[in-house]
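User: Sequence in, structure out. Go.
Assistant: Echoing your sequence, followed by the structure tokens.
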Amino acid sequence: MGFVPYGMERATLDDKQKIRKMLEYLGITHPAHQVEFLSALLGKPFDTTKMSRQDFMTLRTKIKNIQTEKDKA
């Protein structure tokens, strides 16, 4: 296998589960709605089967920011 730049390797199944749990906490439970929401956060079409580690880190940060704002309100 060739060289894969840092952050471009595939996200693990645990990473995908963390994102799913974070979205469920926000009240986004339907899979189609989750994909639309993640696409809006990333600013590009989102494919759950091809999520990179970099995408995971970006999504986790943005969703955490949304969660803290929700908790403040």
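User: And one key feature?
Assistant: The mean pLDDT is 87.
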